[in-house]
Amino acid sequence: MSARTAAAPAAGEFGRRAARGAAVTFIGQLIRIAVQIGGLSILARLLGATDYGLFAMVMVVVGVSEVFRDFGLSNAAVQAPTLSTRQRDVLFWVNSGIGLALGVVIVGVAYGVGALYGRPELIPLTQFMGITFVFNGLATQHRASLNRDLRFWSLTVIDTVAAVAALVVAIVLSLAGLGYWALAWQMVSLAAVTLILSVATARWLPRLPRRGTDMTGFYRFGWNTVATQLVQYSANNMASLVIGLRLGARELGFYNRSLQLLMNPLNQLRAPATRVAIPLFSRLQHEYDRFDAYILRGQIVLGYTLVAGLGLVAGAAEPVVAIFLGEKWAEVTPVLRFLIVAGAFQTLAYVAYWVFVSRALTGALFRFTLITASMKIAFVLIGSQWGVVGVAAGYALEPVLSWPLAIWWLTRYTRIPVRPLVLGVIRLSSVALVGGLAAFAASTIVAPAGPVVQILAATVADLVVYALAALVVPAVRRDVVELVQIANAARHRGPRPSPSAGAMPTDQEDLR
Question: What is the rounded radius of gyration, in angstroms, for the C-alpha atoms of the chain?
């Protein structure tokens, strides 16, 4: 890699840039969440549990290939201190080649998918989904370039427009009676629109790769990352595989809807947080005091936004399911509550993930993931003895136990503020738990008034708990003050960072 690195921004500007990036992505993701939840509600009424179950059967297998498509090279490009145009060109062709190869491979794998579930209709469905690998492979480095340049607004617009376009396609095809094929077209449309907008926005065209370009660090980083993601994917999707094989498409449909009702909006908020955190924290990886301060701020933001929201949804799970999915999906409620527990602790664990990636500790992350994946698979298999609810309970138990393990694991490799992080999680989870219980009590009391009133009552009860906690508990009050300061920093406008993806640099020029 070239020896020249970009100058680090001053402390004040860095903080404002981080806050602005987080605010932009958060607002954009709120729009996407509204679109997704609206689409989820509409499609849940147009399609049945079996449609979703069949599509989920395909996605369990297809998603494995998606892990390999990226090969960890997007994060490698974002995390690298310097990135030359030659290196970026090579990364583009590697990701594109992998995507094309996987698209071809999935054509043959489709026959195995049909045989695995005893469903021949899954063969053409799986083969059609292979198109997404080609599109996503072509888009990977253009998106990484936007992320590296801190162009969070552009990424937010791309993701939002693509999601809306894909949803329109799915709704139209569902109304036309295409069933699970509407879901497949939604995925392919999402990948196609994302590719077109990413290429147009990034404003660079790759050149042919040249020999002699030093890529060793990128491939090492990417291999460790993809190995970690593969293990994580296998563990996370073991539940769907077990339900599909043991309980059938209908039960898998119920599990999939509860998972999507929770994870779709949650991932839409967590992904941009990571998109902001990794490039910014990577620039601070050797400034330990500033790094620790930003890590603690990240935990506060996650705790008082996402985790707080999850506590509210857990308390009001019954009216949430009734409004967004409909009465025929009532069996989703207990599954959703267990998955919310998993989602809350997975969200808190994102802080540890940011440290692993931004400090290039991908080997340590892979070894840690092997342990947690083994735990999750074991818990899911044990829980499957009690049906789909037992599977969800087993899925939730692993992240609860893995969070403290992640902190301990990190201390073996790098410095982190252990005590503040642990106390912060105890504080955040405790307030969320009490808020969730208050929301449950309020929604139960007003149940005869209907689900809309239940959600309103639950929201008020949850807000009262957080207000009282801020008044009574000094540590919570300090967290709120910190959160307000972060929000104020997000509103402060400073000079925009110079983009690196405008005019094409020379071969020797580094990309910031």
Answer: 23
Those residues with Cβ within 8 angstroms of residue 397's Cβ, 6 or more apart along the chain or in another chain: 379, 383
pLDDT at 204 over 70: yes
Residue-wise pLDDT for 136-190, tens only, equals 888 888 887 787 776 777 888 888 899 899 999 999 999 998 888 999 999 999 9
- Answer yes or no: are the C-beta atoms of 289 and 277 closer than 8 Å: no
DSSP H helical segments within 47-151, as ranges? 49-70, 73-79, 85-117, 122-129, 131-148
| Tens digit of each residue's pLDDT (9 = 90 or more) over 110-144 | 998 888 888 898 999 999 988 988 898 888 888 87
Q: Which tokens sit at 63?
A: 């998603």
The secondary structure of residue 71, as a DSSP letter, is T
CA triple 357-369-350, angle to 5 deg: 45
**Do residues 336 and 263 touch, judged by C-beta distance below 8 A?**
no
CA-to-CA distance for 429 and 260, rounded, in angstroms? 23
Residue with tokens 């799970």: 317
Residue pair 135/192 in contact (Cβ under 8 Å)? The answer is yes
Identity of residue 317: A
Nearest of 233, 336, 249, 324 to residue 52 by alpha carbon: 249
Widest CA span in the chain: 72
